[in-house]
Amino acid sequence: MEYNEKQLAIINSAEKLFALNGFDGASVRDIAHEACVNLAMISYYFGSKEKLMEAVFEQRTTKIRLKVENLIQDTSIGNLEKVNILIDDYVDKFIHQQEFHKIMLREQLIEKNTPIAALIHELKKKNMESIKKLVMDGQKSGEFKKNIDVTLMMSTLVGTVSNIITCQSFYREMNNLENMTEIEFQKHVRKKLSTHLKNIFKSILTNEG
Amino acid sequence: MEYNEKQLAIINSAEKLFALNGFDGASVRDIAHEACVNLAMISYYFGSKEKLMEAVFEQRTTKIRLKVENLIQDTSIGNLEKVNILIDDYVDKFIHQQEFHKIMLREQLIEKNTPIAALIHELKKKNMESIKKLVMDGQKSGEFKKNIDVTLMMSTLVGTVSNIITCQSFYREMNNLENMTEIEFQKHVRKKLSTHLKNIFKSILTNEG
DNA sequence: AATAATTAATCAAACGTTTGTTTAGTTTTA
DNA sequence: TAAAACTAAACAAACGTTTGATTAATTATT
């Protein structure tokens, strides 16, 4: 879908306010005001608030799919190295699209079969299948051990990153990082998360001693 | 606070619907209907919807504090064993109070200084301090290694459990557990999460080979 | 190239619902 | 019989959406 400037302004404002206040908590009036457009333009362009939410998803999910497919093909990289690249990719995506990820977290708490729930489900399933394949490759080559619960492992990846991002201010407080600028802090967290998760994954996947 | 039967019915219904639809998504009419009480009873007993939410928190957080304080005192248990007990305690609490934890997850996405945000913050801070102390004890005794990021470690605990509980149906689907009863599944997840997290924590905390 | 016709974009105002809360009255309890 | 518990109805405010009018931009016609 191609959007003009005004439509993109609405989508960006919607993303921001949906992330902050939730779908029901963010009124179309607030979104219109934030985007500096007339209230009626939202219905005019997107049809409804619900459809606007779908547009936000459509706009963001296109870029969000992990680059696993291409990565798996590459024969010049070891499988553990591939996993490490994947971790960094995931951490980066989450940090740089925090608001959208917050919407996703919220949406997953609703156990209804909305069109958005279907989009999220498909996205997760595709990623999971790719990663399962990657783990199997590592097991065949002898790099990884047997009996790995990939779902559980991915929950640790996704869960840890989600938690840190959701509780940023708490993390800052606990580690006396309140004076860091936003960019400094992002860099710090990125590095910390990366090494933390790589260590965990190494311990889950290999028989390192 | 002491609540009568009707008040408890309201609190329970509110917990359920807040977890499912969020604060704004759950109307007081829905809550009243679910609790089989007249709409006006909510204002009558709790004053407002906001105060009802606070009552839900007050009612649940009293039981939720991890039993770390007592645990730390106990000299008959090793520190790694204490950590393992803590993990089981946390997993159990999360599984048996899923709805309340979903509300907490949602509430943490809102970056506003609501009374509830303050309650959550205090709860987390107290737990974090206790666990930091526990880790330090383990380091002094030589059981644990140095340079442990406790915040990051706790993010992995909380994040992994949250993620699995939030995405239960996805976890079931990925592991072909759709036919399990709710209780069987809870037992299964409990065991899986427990061993998974204990392995991770052992690897984070000790120099095991 | 100038004008008419058509479409798209924009807006303030109003629509009908639903929202949380209150009222004023009734029933129950002690 | 006074206080507490309870209710149906009404309240104003906020909600998402639609309307009808107006302006800007594009296309068609002469």
TL;DR of this structure?
With 209 residues, the first copy, chain A, is mainly alpha-helical.
Plain-language structure description:
2 copies of one chain form a homodimer. Chain A is mainly α and 209 residues long. Chain A has 2 domains: 51 residues, Homeodomain-like (Arc Repressor Mutant, subunit A, Orthogonal Bundle), CATH 1.10.10.60; 141 residues, Tetracycline Repressor, domain 2 (Orthogonal Bundle), CATH 1.10.357. In chain A, 77% of the residues lie in helices and 0% in strands. Chain A is built from 11 helices and no strands. The longest helix of chain A has 26 residues. Chains A and B meet through helix 1, helix 7, helix 8, helix 9 and helix 10 of A and helix 1, helix 7, helix 8, helix 9 and helix 10 of B. The structure holds a DNA duplex (30 and 30 nucleotides).
